[in-house]
Amino acid sequence: MTTQECDSRDRRIVEKIRTVLQANPKLGQHASLIEVSIEHSAIVVRGSLPSDAMKAELVPAIRSAGVLSQVNNYVLVAA
45, 36 in Cβ contact below 8 A? Predict the structure, then answer.
């Protein structure tokens, strides 16, 4: 797979995750606070959410997008 093909695939995966997060009933209104990227073949999420329950909902939501890669959740809970 070429670098261009990998970049295109990564962009599609990130867009799919963003779409799922925006549609999620618990996370949707906060989806703009979450940054999603792919680093060394792992999904990386950063940002902040207002509760631990919402942070815990992130990985299952990402999995519901069909993503089986490792997910590194660096999201902070805002005080």
Answer: yes
